[in-house]
Structures are given as structure tokens and as C-alpha cells.
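Take a minute with the sequence and C-alpha cells given here and flag any C-alpha cell that looks odd. Thanks in advance.
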Amino acid sequence: MLSLSREMTATSGRWSLYAQLFGFIVAAGFGFFLSGIPIQISDSLGNLTTVAAVSWQQLLGEQFWSRAFFRPLLLAQTKALLDLSGGHYFAAFRAFQVIQVFAAIWLFIRLLHVRNAAQCAAAIVAVAVLAGSHTFAGTIREAYPINNYMTVALCCLVTLNVLAAGSPRWYTDLLVVAAFVLALGTIETGLLVWGCLFVGRLVGWKGVSLPASAVATVILLAYFGVRFTVLDVGIPDLTERSTGFGFVRLERFEVGERFGAWPCGFYLYNVLSSIATVLFSEPRAGVWMFLRDLQAGRAEPWMWINVVAATAATLLVCWYVLAEQWRRHPSTWSHGQRLTVVAVAVLVANAGISFPYTKDQIMSLGGMVFAAAVFAAVALRFEAPPRARLVRALTAVLLCVVSAGWAWRIVGLQHNLVHTAFTQRNDWAYFDLWLKSHPESQRDPATAKMVQSLYEDALRRRVPNPSLDPLPLERFYDHHTD
């Protein structure tokens, strides 16, 4: 009996390793393309010069008492990495970005608990859904120079992995609390770490102790107290950003004019749109691009691929929810059922936080947990295929559409990264204009040296123009950006 148990453990470990190997290959592909993207001259360079010219005490003080947002740890991460770079600015920030991508895919696969060949195949499909998603694309395509949404997503994945691991340990409790503090101090979506902790315990995961959960709750209450009473930061204003609505994109003043008297309807639209963009890949940043272009007779192939692949995956998840036997107590649920419940709850919570305005990368965590639900759905179809021939054939078609469609979307994202590299390198042509509008960047010698180094690095990069690709595939790649 003992030898049989050891053999089963070794077998399950082998299939988990295969899944991790596939994830490593996908992450390595992204890493290759990321290594060719120069640092942005817009947001990234501005943030770098901001943190380079101030002391730690001044930076933390200014960020803590900021009136627009309460994000005291956002720029602190940039300054820490800048101080550790040793003058190798591009290498430090791009390496950190690549490490984040590897960590996200590794933590995602680890959360799935792959145990056999069917689950390994399902994990490969789930990684394709994760890596091909437009919500994931924003977290690796953009950097400021550290993508804040990826930071929050990693903190949430760490929390879910610890919860699902089994018995709590003091060091894992400390890790989860630290992840919550980091995410909460980085950006408002950091609240989702507590949401993951709450719903994870509801479904029966007990990897985080009750005292640690209580500490996290106290931190949450303190956050709201400081934000809404001490600092009176409140919530983002209705006209804070331009955003999509229906078939058009509204500028800030247009949002105020149309919804100033009744903002609740606008907020509800944003929440529902955020859920829909994960489940159906539409709308994009609040704009129903596919329906608009379909009505006008100019819907491009990449739109069809995105919508069909996402809808097929959503149908699989719905089928899984209806097919599974949902027993009364969560302790009797399978790991796949727990993953699905967590996915639904986190998706709704993620959409709720995006009520002020919609943006693809805000829903990055929602896209990740949706991919986990797809894993559960596909694993069931592989482990217990339907008996009826017609249903089995339809299942095979549905699985082929999901796997092929999302795999193609990964290729599209890699192509999109080449576009990003080409665009961001060309932006450095306006370096002289940037210097004139940012004279403070030349006052400190160290800051001026950093700016010049990044400029020279961008010039040295030889980035091909993706529009000159001899293969006529441009219309098949998702090239939409917020």
C-alpha cells in the first residue's frame, strides 16, 4: 500500500512537472519579446525621474498624503529597483518584468494541483487561456516602469496558493499579510487580496490561519478609515478618466455631461462590461468594438477569433457548473469546484472595483481566475467524456475551438509585443521635446545620467517594423490597446 501511494505521488508530480514545463516555454517566449522593448519615454521615464530626485523619506511622505489617490507604496517599488540597478536601468526593470511573468504563470499552474494526464492537458489549455487573454496582455505589455496590476495579481495568486496548500504555517501567514499590505499600498485593486482570502476560506481552503485572516481584516478596516476619514481621499471622480460606453469612447467632460446627474447607471455599465470582457472578450475598455464593426460590415478576423474562443470557453465553464454534483457542504467539493466558485466570486469582485472606469488590465486577476475555471471544466471533459456520440463529437469540437483559438491569441500577443517595441522606440524620437517639458530631469546629475542612458539604450535597439511582415496575418492578430 505504501509503495502504491509513493508511485501515485511520483506520477502526479510528473504530470505537474510537464504542465510547468509548458508554462515555462510560454513565459520564455514572452520574455524574449519583452527584452526588446525600450523603456517608455512617457509614463515610465516620468516616474523614474520623479523617484530618482527625491529621498525615501520625501517620497513616502508625498505618496502617503497624496490627495488624488491613496497609493503610498506605488512609486516606492520603482525607487527600490532603481537603487538596486547599479546603473543598469533597462536590464533591471526588464528583468523584473520578465520575472513577474514567469512567477505569474508558475503560481497559476501550481494553483491548479495537476495530478494526472487529463489534468495536465487541461492545464495546458488553461495556460493558453491565461496567456492569450487581453486582460493579461496589458500587464506585460505596459510598464510604468513596474506594472501595478501585475503586482496585485501576483499577491492574489500567492494568497490563493497558500490557502489551497493545506495547513497554515506562521511564515505563510506572514507572507499573505505582507502580500496584502504590498497590494493595498500599490493600487486600489489590492483590495482583491482580502477578497481572495475571504472567499478561499468560504470554500474550505484553510492554508491561512484565523489569526492571520483577522490581522488582514484589521488592516482592511484601517485602510478604509485612513482613506475616507483621515485623508478624505474618497473614490475617483466621475470625470477622472476618459472611458468607453456603448460603441464610442467618451472624453472626461463627455462622461460628466452625460452621467453627472445619474452616475449609478454609468457605474453599473462599467461593472457589467468588465465581467463581459473576461467571459466574451467584449467590450474592450468599455467599447463594444466587435458589435460596432460587425454592424458596419468591417469586423476583422482577430475580433472573430477573440469572441468565438472566449465564448466557447465560457460555455465549457457553464457546462461544468451544470454537470457537477454540488453537494451541500463545501468540504465535499472537488478542487475544481472550489476553483470555479473562487473564480466566479473574484471575477465579480474585480469587476466591482472597476466601477469608476473600465480598462482591460484592471480585470487581469479576473482573467486569471477565469482560466482556472476553464481548467476545471476541461479536466472534467477529459476525465469523464460524454457517452452519447453526438455530445462527444460536439465536446471535441468545442475543445478544439477553445485550445486552437486561445493558442492563436498567444501568438497574437507576441506579435503585439513587437508592435509595442517598435512604437516605444519611435517615441524616443521626441526626446528633445520631452527634455524641454521636463527641465527638472537635468538639475540632478545622477538623474540626467540615467535619462541619457535610457535614451542611448533605445537608440541601440534594432526593432523591426511588424507592419512589413511578408505574411499577411496582421488582421488576424489582436492589436487593440487601451
Summary: Strands lie at 243-245, 248-250. Residues 1-8 have pLDDT under 50 and may be disordered.
